[in-house]
């Protein structure tokens, strides 16, 4: 059984289909849980109970189209779009800080108003832009054999990352800044940067994080809620404690979809940051483990794609996408469980949020494009798209000795043999006539 599973896992198309299937299942599960967690909130605001579901479904449709387009786009096309995506994202992040254009939500000014109820969060697309740009940059450096030189390894990658982090921190979004730093570390690690570089980088990041935390009372209170079992005198740990209540009351199989109690005004943000808590209350431990299993399958298949890659860019971009999804899921889940401070980052593909969903689905499309760039995957996908007789005919045509070049050689050899035979017969007739 284990050998059969190993053979199935090592097939060319297995990681491709695992990534695609896990993404579809997580997005579908997210739509169901978003509807369940948000309908009470919508009614409280005087909105239809399906208000948030419709918006999330629209974002999922846009993300699905973008995923398919990104998966079909050749790797070269993604590399050509790397710098324009980064420049455009930086411009949008700068526009967020312009008075009248930026929108403040929950104390963070990281939304760009588009008119009416529509807004976009550029910091989510900054992750995708940095993934493609950073992978392309390091692939070019590796192609020139300059990865061992620190100035080529770190410049302009690190300054570009720090500029993105600074623009994100201007809006107060420290969670996204942490994920961008994780992406930078992941890219450098896969590129083969020396370990001492990470030691110094971690020391610097720790010092900067400590400074940012101690200068903000809001961030200090979030660290004070680690492992809290009581909301505290000012209810500063209310969200974390009630998230724990929701998870603990779910039991093994949960109360059933739509039967959550905490979403009735007890748990703030039940459809965004703390959607895992509502999922645990309604779907139980089995539902939570199934969700975590889908995330694990998605990340494992992405790492398999990166390990198989022969091109540096494909390996780097696949590993960066996996780093993004794994880091964001870990931060969100750790915050809900009280093991990490609540950072305000959504659970990928599950939490409510159009910008976050579209950006992650675009990243999954890049991951599928990376898988399709391998020759064995392309050949398997091509053979899957042909009818059986066509595949058999193609196999006969391309058997050893049956290639077009071999056919030309056989035809030329037969013609040459025929010509030699005619010349011999002609010479024999000539010699016979002379004797006579």
Automatic annotation (TrEMBL):
It is found in: Cell membrane. It comes from the Bacteria. Keywords: Cell cycle, Cell division, Cell membrane, Cell shape, Cell wall biogenesis/degradation, Glycosyltransferase, Membrane, Peptidoglycan synthesis, Transferase, Transmembrane, Transmembrane helix. Its EC number is 2.4.99.28. InterPro entries: Cell_cycle_FtsW-rel_CS, FtsW, FtsW/RodA. Coiled coil: none annotated. One of its GO terms (molecular function) is lipid-linked peptidoglycan transporter activity. Belongs to the SEDS family. FtsW subfamily. PANTHER family: CELL CYCLE PROTEIN, PEPTIDOGLYCAN GLYCOSYLTRANSFERASE FTSW-RELATED. This is Probable peptidoglycan glycosyltransferase FtsW. The lineage of its organism: Bacteria, Bacillati, Actinomycetota, Actinomycetes, Kitasatosporales.
């Amino acid at each position: 059984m284990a050998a059969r599973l190993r053979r199935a896992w090592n097939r060319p198309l297995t990681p491709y289909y695992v990534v695609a299937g896990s993404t579809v299942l997580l997005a579908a599960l997210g739509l169901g849980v978003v509807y369940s967690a948000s309908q009470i909130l919508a009614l409280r605001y005087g909105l239809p109970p399906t208000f948030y579901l419709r918006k999330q479904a629209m974002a999922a449709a846009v993300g699905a189209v973008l995923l398919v387009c990104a998966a079909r786009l050749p790797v070269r096309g993604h590399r050509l779009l790397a710098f324009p995506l980064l420049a455009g994202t930086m411009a949008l992040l700068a526009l967020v800080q312009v008075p009248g254009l930026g929108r403040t939500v929950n104390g963070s000014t990281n939304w760009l108003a588009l008119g009416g109820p529509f807004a976009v969060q550029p910091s989510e697309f900054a992750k995708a832009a940095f993934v493609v740009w950073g992978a392309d940059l390091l692939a070019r450096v590796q192609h020139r054999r300059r990865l061992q030189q620190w100035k080529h390894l770190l410049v302009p990658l690190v300054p570009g990352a720090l500029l993105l982090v600074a623009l994100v921190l201007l809006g107060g979004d420290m969670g996204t800044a942490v994920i961008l730093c994780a992406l930078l570390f992941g890219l450098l690690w896969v590129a083969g940067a020396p370990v001492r570089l990470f030691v110094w980088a971690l020391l610097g990041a720790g010092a900067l994080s400590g400074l940012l935390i101690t200068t903000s009372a809001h961030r200090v209170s979030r660290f004070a809620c680690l492992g809290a079992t009581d909301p505290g005198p000012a209810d500063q740990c209310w969200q974390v404690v009630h998230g724990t209540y929701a998870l603990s009351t779910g039991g093994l199989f949960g109360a059933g979809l739509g039967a959550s109690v905490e979403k009735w005004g007890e748990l703030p943000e039940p459809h965004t940051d703390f959607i895992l808590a509502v999922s645990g209350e309604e779907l139980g431990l089995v539902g939570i483990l199934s969700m975590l299993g889908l995330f694990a399958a998605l990340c494992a298949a992405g790492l398999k794609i990166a390990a198989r890659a022969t091109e540096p860019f494909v390996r780097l971009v696949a590993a960066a996408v996996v780093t993004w999804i794994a880091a964001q899921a870990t931060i969100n889940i750790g915050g809900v469980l009280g093991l990490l401070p609540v950072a305000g980052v959504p659970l990928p593909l599950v939490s409510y949020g159009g910008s976050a969903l579209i950006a992650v689905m675009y990243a999954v499309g890049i991951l599928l494009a990376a898988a399709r760039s391998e020759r064995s995957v392309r050949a398997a996908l091509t053979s899957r798209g042909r009818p059986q007789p066509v595949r058999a005919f193609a196999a006969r045509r391309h058997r050893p000795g049956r290639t077009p070049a071999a056919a030309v050689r056989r035809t030329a050899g037969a013609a040459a043999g025929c010509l030699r035979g005619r010349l011999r017969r002609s010479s024999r007739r000539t010699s016979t006539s002379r004797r006579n």
